[in-house]
Specification:
The complex is a heterodimer of chains A (about 525) and B (about 375).
Chain A: H1 14-17, H2 33-36, H3 51-57, H4 81-93, H5 116-123, H6 125-128, H7 140-157, E1 161-163, H8 169-186, E2 194-198, H9 204-211, E3 215-219, H10 230-236, E4 241-247, H11 259-268, E5 272-277, E6 296-300, E7 317-321, E8 333-336, E9 341-344, H12 361-397, E10 404-405, E11 418-419, H13 421-427, H14 431-438, E12 458-459, H15 469-488, H16 491-494, H17 508-511, H18 520-526
Parallel strand pairs in A: 2-3, 2-4, 4-5, 5-6
Antiparallel strand pairs in A: 1-7, 6-7, 8-9, 10-11, 11-12
Chain B: E1 8-14, H1 32-40, H2 47-58, E2 65-69, H3 76-81, E3 87-88, H4 99-111, E4 116-121, H5 123-133, E5 139-143, H6 157-169, E6 174-182, H7 184-188, E7 194-203, H8 222-231, E8 237-240, H9 244-253, E9 263-266, E10 269-272, H10 277-284, E11 289-294, E12 301-303, H11 312-318, E13 323-326, H12 329-333, E14 339-341, H13 346-352, E15 354-361, E16 364-371
Parallel strand pairs in B: 1-2, 1-4, 2-3, 4-5, 8-11, 11-13, 12-14, 13-15, 14-16
Antiparallel strand pairs in B: 6-7, 8-9, 9-10, 15-16
Classes of the chains: A alpha/beta (about 525), B alpha/beta (about 375).
């Protein structure tokens, strides 16, 4: 146990920690597991196999190739089973998520509640023990699930073919950029090297085409309408335009009213339109990318389709294309001949392999289960509730002193970009500070904004259909209290959080790779600096 | 403060006369005659108040730094009034301070390796600081002057204290900001003529900076922008405006581009330095030419501030289609509104209005609206 963690140390902001926020996180004084190690401690020993089995099987350790065998035992900590259980249970109690608090802060991420039933399905041995190298005729059931999901997503998006190979949203946009590049090359249009996007699309809409070798031209939303506007697009589109990459609805909750016009304009110059519908939550069954002229698009199964995400995965992107682009999709493509499902690798024009095997299968399965349980009507209602919840949140949030909203006259769908510019001017407290304080209320820290930050001091929550009115009210109430603190005693906020597992830490050293120790061994060798 | 780190040194220079012209409608306070006139009209000294607003904010952190300042009204009085025990440098004649005092204070502070020099004043004070120390120290302006065109000032004294706190924590990176000023004699006669005088090193908030997550290939800095311009060059004449972003093109071509002047290059060679309107018109007569400019100052001007040599006649001759605007994304994002033009010729301003592509990195452009 280190000195700073000692229970006897008085917390320097104890008076702030005594303010009632209705929440106190568990705070264990839990050392690193290596520090708990005691030489000779151990778990029960698994008994040896019966003699007969031993004779038949022989020494299995001999069957492990020599070159992958350790020469010395691994430097593992030595603990008893209850000590290990206690350690990890305590760490798990110090985490925060949908199961432990109000989780409506992470706009653009659609952190909706994912039913446990779907987790159970994914854990079934018949799924968990499948091997990706099995012959396809031995997992026809899973292929059927994938094929059905593909068909439903085609129906929801108005596209003709889907692939589940991308591992997330950015990977999906990159794959679509590669398809766009392959398409123009195949048509001999090498001069088409410019991609147009906008500052309120997800940043991967600029980043991924850039990685794929395109020049990227970024438009900006009109300050009154929040749309990019046909006049702005007309000013930059040309024969060099390879395509348009836009997020719909925008990151700001605004659905661009002229999307169809943009698509027509881009097509008239021989370009393609790629829509990012990672967050499809406000428009399910209400609009289809294919109907308004998109040639490529993607969903994030781990957002809209209720498969869990966060803490680095697993994500799952699903890209949809019109039939003219089907042959460029990454291999394998899923096909059905009327009796059997097949994985087709014979695609001469494919952009190649974008990931191993067939995609993130557990997310595909959970998305399938979720759509099955919702039905078409259920999806429609989910979007309605997501939009209603968000608009209730907007109404209530704008009653908080120092909170404003970008594009106030524009209707928002499933999320909105609030901002605290007035609060920052008047109190010095902005969104970064409020975000540290809100955790003290048992509320997930909120998403501020994607880059580029065109609205200073941004706050972008997203209620989703899963939030109750009580959750929404709690979120707003926390904002009211924090606003009062900002205008009366901003030090409470500047030194927050006070009710969380960890108080404010200096993050600067974490950004310096030379000072960061990511392993126990590195820490032992070099210590903290 | 991390163990082993030395205590930070803050400097404070107050220009006690800054801003006194404003309240009596004199448009600026430079020059002894103006100051006398202002006092005669009942002007009050406001800069000490502005300095104290910042000092009160940072008082709770006083143990984290040593405060160095100049005697009496140039900082000592204000610091003591706020409870500080500052280390006082130099000597002055009270109530008769001049630009020379500001300059010598700044020089002394550079000698003492002050980490951050705060100065209270207006554009004239910023110019004095720039002339005295250039980029030899990190500085931050607390605005008190009548007119502020320079971007070296915090928005107000309270935002200055926020920046100081961040700087003390080590979380406010430093960047070059423009020192601009208007000729005050002309200004009082109703003529606006802003000039770019140079650049100072100023801390800024990280909020507007692109994080590594979003930085696409070649995003963001003067060098990648210069590479993009140079790779796109043909046999036209290139008129290069002032500013560090444009100067980086010279660095990329290994030629001596002037920082504050307008130069011309042809086939990647410098053929004219620090040129005026007539010389520019002479050079491009009958030739294909392009103009490369960046945003000058915090307000977003691409013409009419600091680059008047590129006149309406030059702009028309070159043509709007041959205008290349370059700027870092951070600079664009820190603007409050659209790009601006003020060439002094409203027809030319109208001609320039509309959407324009701004080169922000290699293979990266951002579309902005020019208004007039």
């Amino acid at each position: 146990m280190t000195k700073t963690n000692s229970k006897t140390t008085k917390y320097q902001y104890q008076e702030y920690a005594d303010i009632d926020t209705g929440y106190q996180a568990l705070r264990w004084h839990e050392p690193v597991i290596y520090e708990l190690s005691r030489k000779g401690s151990r778990n029960e020993i698994i008994p040896n196999a019966e003699k007969e089995i031993q004779v038949k099987v022989g020494d299995i350790t001999k069957k492990i190739p020599k070159k992958i065998c350790r020469k010395t035992p691994a430097a593992l900590p030595e603990l008893s089973e209850p000590e290990v259980m206690r350690h990890y249970l305590r760490l798990s109690q110090e985490t925060f998520g949908y199961d432990s608090g109000v989780n409506i802060g992470l706009g653009t991420c659609t952190m909706k509640y994912s039913p446990k039933l779907n987790d159970q399905l994914a854990k079934l041995p018949s799924i968990a023990y499948l091997h990706p190298l099995q012959p396809e005729e031995t997992f026809q059931g899973l292929l059927e699930i994938m094929y059905d999901l593909r068909t439903w997503l085609c129906e929801l998006s108005g596209m003709d073919e889907f692939s589940f190979l991308p591992r997330g949203g950015g990977h999906s946009v990159y794959t679509n950029a590669c398809i766009m590049r392959a398409y123009h090359r195949a048509n001999g249009n090498l001069h088409k090297n410019e991609v147009i996007t906008c500052a309120v699309s997800h940043p991967c809409n600029a980043g991924c085409p850039s990685t794929a070798g395109f020049k990227v031209i970024e438009l900006h939303p009109n300050k009154n309408t929040g749309d990019i506007g046909l006049d702005q697009l007309e000013a930059v589109v040309s024969d060099r335009t390879a395509g348009l990459f836009l997020t719909a609805p925008y990151d700001t909750g605004v659905f661009d009213s002229q999307l169809g016009e943009y698509a027509k304009l881009i097509h008239s110059y021989g370009g393609l339109v790629a829509l990012d519908q990672a967050n499809f939550n406000g428009v399910m069954t209400r609009m289809r990318a294919g109907d308004i002229g998109a040639d490529l698009m993607h969903f994030n199964l781990h957002k809209t389709f209720s498969t869990p995400h966060g803490s680095a995965g697993p994500g799952a992107g699903a890209i949809g294309v019109k039939k003219e682009l089907r042959e460029y999709l990454p291999a394998p493509l899923l096909e059905f001949d009327g009796s059997q499902y097949h994985l087709n690798y014979n695609l001469p024009k494919t952009i190649g392999k974008t990931g191993v095997f067939y995609g993130v299968i557990i997310n595909v399965l959970k998305a399938y289960a979720w759509i099955m349980s919702m039905g078409e009507q259920g999806l429609r209602e989910a979007s309605e509730w997501a939009v209603i919840n968000n608009n209730y949140l907007i109404k209530k949030m704008l009653e908080v002193r120092g909170v404003d909203i970008a594009w106030p006259n524009r209707r928002k769908l499933q999320e909105a970009r609030f901002h605290l510019q007035k609060m920052k001017e008047e109190t010095g407290i902005g969104s970064a500070e409020v975000n540290l304080r809100i955790a003290d209320f048992g509320i997930q820290t909120f998403f501020e904004s994607h880059e580029p930050v065109i609205i200073p001091e941004p706050v972008t929550p997203e209620a989703s259909e899963a939030a109750s009115k009580e959750d929404l009210d709690r979120f707003v109430e926390a904002f009211h209290q924090i606003s009062k603190e900002a205008y009366s005693n901003p030090e409470i906020i500047r030194t927050a959080p006070h009710h969380c597992t960890i108080h404010q830490t200096n993050l600067e050293p974490l950004l310096d790779s030379k000072r960061t120790k990511v392993t126990w061994r590195a820490y032992q060798k070099r210590g903290l600096s | 403060m991390n163990p082993g780190e030395r205590k930070k040194k803050l400097g404070l220079i107050v220009n006690p006369l800054a801003g006194i012209g404003g309240r009596v409608g004199l448009k600026g306070s430079d020059g002894i005659e103006t100051v006398k006139k202002a006092f005669a009209m009942g002007a009050e000294i406001i800069s000490p108040q502005r300095a104290m607003e910042t000092l009160q904010d940072i008082y709770p952190f006083k143990d984290e730094f040593d405060l160095f300042t100049y005697p009496k009204g140039m900082g000592e009085d204000e610091a003591k009034a706020c409870g500080f025990s500052p280390i006082v440098l130099g000597e002055i004649v009270p109530d008769q301070t001049s630009a020379e005092d500001t300059k010598s204070a700044a020089r002394k502070m550079v000698d003492l390796e002050i980490d951050l020099i705060l100065f209270v004043g207006g554009d004239g004070t910023a110019r004095d600081i720039y002339e005295a120390i250039g980029d030899k120290a990190t500085v931050l302006g607390i605005p008190s002057g009548v007119k502020i065109h320079s971007s070296v000032y915090a928005v107000n004294p309270h935002r200055a204290s926020e920046l100081i706190k961040m700087f003390l924590k080590g979380s406010a990176p430093v960047r070059e900001m423009e020192v601009m000023d208007i000729d005050e004699d002309l200004f009082r006669k109703g003529q606006v003529s802003a000039r770019l005088y140079g650049y100072l090193q100023v801390p800024h908030e990280k909020g507007l900076i692109q994080s590594a997550k979003s930085a696409s290939l070649g995003a963001g800095n003067n060098r990648t922008i210069a590479e993009a311009v140079v790779d796109g060059m043909n046999d036209d004449y290139y008129i290069l405006g002032p500013g560090t972003t444009v100067k980086a093109i010279g660095d990329e071509l290994k030629i001596e581009k002037t920082l504050l002047g307008v130069d011309v290059i042809y086939r990647k060679q410098l053929i004219g330095k620090d040129l005026n309107e007539q010389q520019l018109l002479g050079l491009i007569e009958g030739k294909n030419a392009k103009i490369v400019v960046t945003i000058i100052g915090g307000q977003g001007y691409i013409f009419g501030r600091g680059n008047q040599q590129i006149s309406p006649r030059v702009i028309r001759k070159v043509g709007k289609q041959n205008l290349i605007v370059i700027a870092t994304k951070n600079k664009l994002l820190s603007l409050k509104g659209p790009l601006l033009v003020d060439t002094g010729d409203s027809e030319c301003d109208n001609y320039l209005s509309g959407y324009i592509r701004v080169i922000t990195g290699y293979n990266e452009e951002s579309v902005w609206k020019i208004e007039c």
